[in-house]
Write a structure and sequence with these properties.
With about 350 residues, the protein is mostly beta strands. The protein contains one helix and 29 strands.
Length: about 350
Amino acid sequence: MRTMSLTKMRLEAPGRPRPTRRAARPVAALLAALLVAAAHSSGCGESATSGGIGGSGAVAGPIEDFGSIFVGGIEFDTSAATITLDGELSEQSALSIGMPSRISGIVDTATEAGIAQNVEVETSVRGPLESLEPGSRRFVVLGQQIVLDSGSVLEDGPVAGLALGSIVSVGGLLAEDDSVRATLVQATPDADDFIIRGKVRRLDVSTNRFEIRRHRGDTVEAFVIHFKGAVIVGGELENAATVSVHTGASGSEDNNLVAQIVRVFPVLPPGESGDVILTDSLVFDVLEGDTLLMHGDLRVLLSPSTVFVGGTILDIAPGTRLRVQGSLDDDLALVASRVEFGPQPDAPPDRATR
């Protein structure tokens, strides 16, 4: 008989420092840091003292720590922020390290400080654990393939300790093939709804259906979503849009799922030219002219002045996890000033830690 470990684990990437809980700076200190940064820059742009960038903008990535909220290496004051979890108003105490988030407000990368106006946190996948190959770093939840990497937070211990059929919630980064690179795995036996995430394909408004790719063994199949009567929020439902589909906690039948809520959202909140952007996500495609296409159809422009950490431009391929820092140009492409390589799925774990 297997027993589930209650140890909170993180698979650490070799050579990457293990995150430790940081004491939050007082609100006054955060404000002072931002004012100092503003004094050394003109609006949005490069800080004259440190090479960082500051101004209005957005950060997307998994939650790294609390005190305030740390995302993308930035400590955000959330005292006046609106916080939502899966579209519902929430408290910061309901959030967990590893949950994917999108934060908009004031960002300064030089001081690593920010003031959050909106904090949006989403569950990527929730449902029954359908398959798990012993020793594998991949498993399937509600037909969606989940991939662990060296940065995945396993809140309830190893996935192998969970029984098939257990209800789990996964936070993570959507890959081009609609698999999810897990940043957080939690056992959630009391969940009252299931969630899947993917890109809309074969949208047919006459029959109120679209498809999301799902994985069954080594094959990829179409998961048919029926959205007649569903509440559609966040944007227009169209092909290639990234969506989260919420359904009743009854699973799927014959690759069909009846949606109750369909949430349409970009990987980042809407922005404008000059906004500071920092995103931790996966590369969907490498285009010509040193241009990357990342989650949410965000175009990233590389240049000779882009600083690379942990790899080079030659190491970038579809599926590579990157933390990209820069600002939006007039065409709302992200002009990258810094690119840091994140955990990769084939990186072996260093050790499990409490």
